[in-house]
Design goal:
Length: about 400
């Protein structure tokens, strides 16, 4: 077991233990949103399937329109009316025009469309006062997608546009990486369910819900387990229950140095379990415990509500993203430099994640201030904050007006 390691090293150990993304499953099209697709999707036909009108207007032969001018308008009889979805099989010959709507297939003979607003129609003929270039306002067959082309490649994250594309090529179901199933367990003798009125010394369980919400936001499926009391046998049973059927187990509390912090002892005694590291050089979040139980990662998050959430952001979110098939470049929070609007104290020997409110002014300049009190129990700092201000260890602190690095919490 490693002890009191750097954030970077801790993350490498956690991510390094996961060889590959989870298996795939077929889901209906809309459920594929924000998931990673595991197949190359090939177009079954051209899109658009045929040349069609880009505008409501009139189709004609460009060459016929050449003599038309303001002073010498041309009259062209309208020989057909072509709405979208109703192909016309006739043929347009010299001097003729057809009334055609946006999306309607271009009939034989027509090689240009002029918009309705540019011509007059009188007694079944249009009055043309300008020439039209060949190809004008015609969308070509296959200009968006060609049959046989890979339209969405395996490994792509499915965006709303990709959902549209999958519909366009007729995919009611797609194969995507399975969502990680995450067991969420709060521990502590003082913790009561939020449905209860806390007695003396008790507090409501907020961590199970912030953890579960973070899991949902990171694309996982949380399962909230009952609160576990600080008794080794109860913790042992709960952990074993949680490990079976989960891709990841998250606990909160019980990983510090206290007399009732039993998680580490319990895991050490489990068969087929290994504690990989305990304690990370970060603030908040130092007591984090990372272990494998029957090959399932069990991450013991510290109990203080801010520590729980900040540790989740640094270690659990990247792991869930990797499980869900996201590429390396999308695992971590987005970083950006910002001007700090107040003095920040020196962080000591641990990387400090202060909670901040970052704002961009009209010129695009980003500045950040603290949310207020920074204790690891001040859940309000996470409620108000939209970023973490990272301060490297053993630095001197940051002066008001200097540049600091932030990590965005609004994804
Ligand atoms: P622990 O890490 O178990 O020593 O817990 C540290 C502190 O975090 C406790 O004193 C509680 O105030 C708080 N805490 C622990 N678990 C929870 C929870 N599930 N919900 C809210 N606060 C918690
Ligand atoms: Mg506790």
């Amino acid at each position: 077991m490693k002890k009191y390691i750097e954030v970077e090293q801790a993350r490498e150990l956690i991510l390094g233990d996961l060889d590959a993304a989870l298996s795939s499953e077929k889901v209906d099209l809309l459920s594929s949103l924000d998931r990673i697709i595991c197949e190359d999707v090939v177009a079954d036909r051209d899109l658009p399937p045929a040349n069609n009108s880009a505008m409501d207007g009139y189709g004609l032969r460009a060459i016929d329109s050449e003599p038309a001018t303001q002073n010498q308008p041309l009259q062209m009889p309208v020989v057909a009316d072509i709405p979208a979805g109703k192909p016309w099989t006739g043929q347009v010959v010299a001097g003729e025009a057809v009334r055609i709507m946006t999306g309607a297939p271009i009939p034989d003979g027509v090689d240009a469309v002029i918009r309705r607003e540019f011509v007059e129609e009188l007694d079944g003929a249009i009055i043309l006062k300008e020439s039209v270039r060949p190809g004008n306002d015609i969308r070509r067959a296959g200009e968006d997608i060609k049959v046989g082309e890979v339209v969405i490649a395996s490994g792509t994250r499915i965006t709303p546009a990709a959902v549209g594309m999958l519909a366009a090529v007729g995919m009611p179901y797609v194969s995507v990486v399975r969502r990680p199933r995450v067991a969420v367990l709060a521990t502590g003798d003082e913790i009561v369910d939020f449905s209860q009125v806390p007695g003396p010394g008790a507090i409501r369980n907020s961590n199970s819900f912030s953890m579960a919400a973070l899991v949902l936001q990171a694309g996982g499926i949380p399962q909230i387990f009952p609160i576990v009391r600080d008794q080794p046998e109860l913790i042992r049973q709960a952990l074993l229950d949680a490990v079976s059927g989960s891709d990841l187990v998250l606990t909160s509390g019980g990983v510090s140095m206290g007399d009732y912090d039993f998680i580490q002892d319990v895991i050490r005694e489990l068969p087929d379990a290994e504690i990989r590291f305990w304690q990370v050089k970060m603030k908040p979040g130092k007591p984090l415990l990372y272990s494998l139980v029957a090959s399932t990662p069990v991450i013991g998050l510290p109990g203080n509500p801010v520590s729980t959430m900040v540790s989740f952001e640094q270690f659990v979110r990247p792991l869930l993203k990797k499980m869900a098939g996201f590429p390396e470049s999308e695992l971590l929070l987005k970083k950006e430099p910002a001007i700090v609007l107040e003095n920040l104290p020196a962080p000591g020997d641990r990387l400090h994640y202060a909670r901040g409110v970052a704002e961009r002014d009209e010129k695009g300049q980003l500045s950040v201030r603290l949310t207020g009190a920074q204790g690891s129990g001040i859940l309000n700092s996470m409620v108000k904050g939209n970023c973490l201000i990272t301060q490297p260890p053993v630095s001197t602190g940051a002066k008001k007006g200097s540049i600091v690095e932030i990590e965005w919490l609004d994804y």
